[in-house]
Write a structure and sequence with these properties.
By secondary structure, the chain is of the alpha/beta class. The chain has 3 helices and 8 strands; from the N terminus they run βαββββαβββα.
């Protein structure tokens, strides 16, 4: 069974990396931990937590999204609505709301969802973001609950992985055939191996 440990990174896109850095690093306080690039291309990573990151590609002709409110249905091709970042408690939520307000960036009122309390805003690329503080004593990961009055067929089967839905692996890749191919990020490892590496 695969053990998931979190989100390594969410990959977004921007046409203005400077504005993106000022928002994510300087306003929200997420460290810029690494970056790749050459003319016409950048890929920078910001630390959300000890394990999770959000990354941005900078492509020169990328334009901000059309602003779309969180959770409002749309028609046609669509995949991404918003991303929610968890904060430790409600004090953090109010601190973020105050920071956004001081920066004259729109932020919603605090919304109580029962298991989390949230605020909503947009980054400079019009990516819809939410910040969520857990409600003490309520943990849907430990005690899953279905509050949909008419859940879809698969949801009615419960929260656990269902056996027999997909074919079993009958020919796992042998260790001696497991290969990986060098990607753009291999330069990061080369920098880390150099003496005196660091931010340059």
């Amino acid at each position: 069974m695969v053990k998931y440990t979190g989100i390594n990174h969410l990959a977004m896109a921007t046409g203005d990396m400077d504005a993106t850095i000022r928002f994510w690093r300087d306003l929200l306080g997420m460290r810029l931990v690494t970056g790749l690039g050459h003319p016409g291309y950048r890929h920078y990573f910001f630390e959300i937590s000890d394990h999770d990151m959000i990354a941005f590609f900078e492509w020169p002709e990328t334009e901000p999204l059309e602003q779309k409110d969180h959770g409002v249905p749309v028609a046609g091709p669509f995949a991404f609505d918003h991303v929610s970042f968890e904060v430790a408690d409600e004090d953090d939520l109010w601190e973020l709301r105050d920071r956004l307000g001081a920066a004259d960036i729109w932020c919603s009122e605090v919304v109580d969802h029962g298991f989390i309390r949230s605020i909503y805003t947009f980054d400079p690329n019009n990516i819809a973001i939410e910040f969520s503080a857990p409600v003490p004593g309520v943990d849907v990961r430990k005690t899953p609950v279905m509050a949909d009055t008419d859940p879809c067929r698969e949801a009615r089967k419960g929260p656990a992985q269902q056996a027999g839905v997909w074919p079993k692996v009958t020919h796992p890749t042998p260790d001696n055939e497991r290969e990986s191919y060098e990607g753009e990020g291999s330069r990061i490892l080369a920098m880390l191996k150099k003496k005196g590496h660091g931010w340059k």
